[in-house]
Amino acid sequence: MSLPLLTLDLRLESDVVLARQRARQIAGLLSFASLDQTRIATAVSEVARNALEYGSGGKVEFHIETGATPGLLVRIRERGPGIKGLQTILQDRYSSPTAPGVGILGARRLMDRFEVESSEAGATVTMAKALPSRSARLTPQELARVAAELARQAPQGLLEELQSQNQELLRILQELRDRQAEVSELHSRELEETNRGVVALYSELDESAKELKRISDLKSRYLANMSHEFRSPLNTILSMSGFLLDGSSGALTPEQQKEIGFIRKAAEGLSALVNDLLDLAKVEAGKAVIHAEPFEIADLFDAIRGTMQPLLDPDAVTLIVEEPAGIPTLRTDEGKVAQILRNFLSNAIKFTNRGEIRLAAEAGPGDTVILSVKDTGIGIAREDQARVFEEFSQVDGPVQKRVKGTGLGLPLSRKLAQLLGGQVSVQSVLGVGSTFLAVIPRSYQPPNETATTPESRWLLDHRLAPVLVVEDDPVSLLLYEKFLEGSGFQVLPARTLAEARQVLRRVRPRAVMLDILLDAESGWNLLAEMKGQAATKDIPIFVLTMVDGKERAMALGAADFCLKPIERGWVLDRLNALQADGPLDTILIVDDEEADRRVLRGLLAAQGRFHVLEATSGAEGLRRACEDGPDVIFLDLILGDMTGFELLNRLKAEPATREIPVIIMSSATLGEADRQRLAAGTAAILSKSAGSAEEAFATIRDALIRAGLSLTPAGTES
């Protein structure tokens, strides 16, 4: 028995792409692994393409197969004369210039079950893939959820699907050229299998890379959200509890002192966690600042001894600080080196109940110094030694349950050491003790900073609308970048008012996000200044800060005001509302290919908001141009009822349409004579076969600008 999920018609080439996308979506909803999702989508795509090319179309049906072996069942019916030489194809003995049997054989290898029925009335291909164990027993409620989710998910645009497939094909072809001598020795059947395997592998790697990036972004967003706003309430709790404990606000009972002591201890732990998270966020975002100054390692050891000695149990554990001998003056960030050693020592104190903890330094290979913290604690098993440097990771054990920790100290030490150009490691024997080592260059050498200059941070992406963000906190800047990622907007960061003025001299931003509390500066000055100048008074300014001042902000001309912490939805709602303001330019697309019209609509949507009209023939295009008066016409040279040359002549002959800019879109290679003939009456001549998404975006944008639309070219100064 099978339960139907979805049915698609196969009439156009775009339907094959849609079938592939829907197959991948259904496989994902049924919890298939990523590689199996790719296999199912590839098998459906190959058989559907055969049905369209050799059977004049048909249908694709998706079912859930119940019974002893539940699975995803796909049935593809084609109209036509059936499959000639079916048995020869299935036995891999078929040979033809068009090679229709390759898709059938490849699909059969990708699926668990594959059946073909062929007759003069048509052919039916039935494929099945067993459900994964976690989805093998789907309940009716779960099936209803899958169907509802499938109905909710919209297919991706043809542009994204075609661009990714084209790029994969180009990479594969390049590899085939590089290995032509080796590939030529392979049997043709082995070559086909290799090519299909490479396609599947590239698709799987691409999906894995996207998933890893998503996970990394989520982690960075979490760290960034732990901004300095958390410190204010924590400092208040610590200060007020201190007043209560020292009797400044009156005497407390012994029970009250005990309870408030618990509150203060919890606040201190939370404050340490927030500080570690902020440090991690700054390092990962590349916002940490290195203050390299000369200092003596002996002076650093004396300071650390004074801060760590009170944390020890003097009756059980001894702190031994060896006198550094032969260590020349270091020139690096003393604060970060001290933070690394304090984290090492804090970790040693937690897990050493008896014995000693030894802090030492010695000259390392090259121009480095080796700093070490050795303890006689519980030690770390070999299989757990790598885990201790991972965020929020703690090794299970009897002592671990009794000590408090965030799991961030050692990971932060590793990142700080890498920031200074060094590295950390651990040597440990379970039950004997551990030695944590940090190898640091004696003199800090800053990396190439050309990529972090203000000029490089202000390079415009022609596909995105620029948004000036005036904010001195690196964590908040990282948060803005995450908020606007994939939204159609680009962050232009400015940490000072001087940098903000530099940006405004270079480009006119779509909006400004302004923090009022800047380091030694006030954002009120920039707000008043921009609203007082004719060139910038119309730019919307959103004030986002920690102090209440909405009335003052609105009185000075701000578009809106928000108290931190800010939310992504609030920011995007305001920016998207700006995109919706103002009249829309009208664009007419005259093309008889639905797939090409859809691709062009996607390219136009990436450039801004337009009112897009479509015509599928020359006659319809001429009529709509006369009736609707578009601002720009995109014209395909090959139409069903006339050529683009003929339609262009008619447009130029009509008084109502002769002044409308025309952009030619052609898939054919034009000769010099045709180009000269078209150049006199068109704004631009473009090819449909753009090499990459970036090239397509840039080409369309430049053509729209040449056609007179009010787009701001990348890099234009206001």
Q: Which helices and strands, and how do they pair?
A:
Layout: E1 2-10, H1 13-29, H2 34-55, E2 58-65, E3 71-79, H3 86-90, H4 101-110, E4 113-119, E5 122-130, H5 140-152, H6 158-178, H7 180-183, H8 188-225, H9 231-245, H10 254-284, E6 293-295, H11 297-308, E7 317-321, E8 330-332, H12 334-350, E9 355-363, E10 368-375, H13 409-419, E11 423-429, E12 433-441, H14 454-457, E13 465-470, H15 474-484, E14 489-494, H16 497-506, E15 511-514, E16 517-518, E17 521-522, H17 523-531, E18 541-545, H18 550-555, E19 560-563, H19 568-580, E20 585-590, H20 594-607, E21 610-615, H21 618-628, E22 632-636, H22 644-653, E23 662-666, H23 672-679, E24 684-687, H24 693-706
Parallel strand pairs: 7-9, 13-14, 13-15, 15-18, 18-19, 20-21, 20-22, 22-23, 23-24
Antiparallel strand pairs: 1-2, 2-3, 3-5, 4-5, 6-8, 9-10, 10-12, 11-12, 16-17
Helix pairs in contact: 1-2, 2-4, 2-8, 8-15, 9-10, 10-13, 12-13, 20-24, 21-22
